[in-house]
């Protein structure tokens, strides 16, 4: 299945949802991943102790490396609306199921073309974007949005913990059209 990222507008739409209970808890944890670039194993255990001033410091589980991240304004507001006590985490499977509901509620309904292998044959299929949202979409969204904001790749990699550009660029999900639109403003094309 094709991997997606959420635009800043889509992330804001999720942030702005009026939710309570489990959906609010999952939304808020997911938002932390969208603005920190942390893996699910790290953003699911994130708490206020990892924040010092406007800096997040956390020792990552997968590679046992400390990452230091500027605190995004959405992170600070998310913490504030939870009285700096983040909700408990849920299982990965449950999270992924609920994220699709949250994405649908946020109006992330554009169609996305995916390739699916069925009995050895590749089939193109259109699905709603919210159907593809998973916990890992948060990390991919952070990397792609930071890249589109022209933050230098080396600096983004210090946050995401990628050790090679090859591994990092697997996260960047811009379409050919987004790429062309961005390049259209480059002096080479003027």
Automatic annotation (TrEMBL):
<keyword id="KW-0233">DNA recombination</keyword>
<protein>
    <recommendedName>
        <fullName>Tyr recombinase domain-containing protein</fullName>
    </recommendedName>
</protein>
<dbReference type="InterPro" id="IPR002104">
    <property type="entry name" value="Integrase_catalytic"/>
</dbReference>
<dbReference type="InterPro" id="IPR013762">
    <property type="entry name" value="Integrase-like_cat_sf"/>
</dbReference>
<feature type="domain" description="Tyr recombinase">
    <location>
        <begin position="1"/>
        <end position="184"/>
    </location>
</feature>
<dbReference type="InterPro" id="IPR011010">
    <property type="entry name" value="DNA_brk_join_enz"/>
</dbReference>
């Amino acid at each position: 299945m094709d991997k997606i990222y959420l635009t800043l507008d889509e992330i804001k739409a999720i942030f702005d949802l009026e939710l309570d209970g489990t959906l609010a808890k999952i939304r808020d944890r997911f938002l932390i991943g969208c603005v920190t670039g942390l893996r699910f194993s790290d953003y699911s255990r994130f708490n206020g102790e990892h924040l010092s001033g406007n800096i997040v410091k956390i020792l990552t589980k997968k590679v046992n490396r400390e990452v230091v991240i500027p605190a995004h304004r959405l992170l600070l507001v998310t913490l504030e609306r939870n009285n700096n006590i983040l909700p408990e985490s849920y299982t990965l499977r449950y999270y992924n199921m609920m994220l699709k509901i949250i994405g649908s509620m946020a109006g992330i309904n554009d169609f996305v073309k995916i390739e699916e292998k069925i009995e050895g044959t590749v089939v193109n299929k259109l699905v709603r974007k919210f159907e593809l949202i998973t916990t890992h979409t948060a990390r991919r969204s952070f990397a792609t949005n930071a890249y589109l904001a022209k933050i230098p790749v080396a600096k983004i990699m210090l946050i995401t913990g990628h050790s090679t550009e090859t591994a990092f660029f697997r996260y960047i999900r811009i379409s050919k059209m987004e790429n062309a639109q961005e390049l259209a403003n480059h002096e080479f094309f003027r």
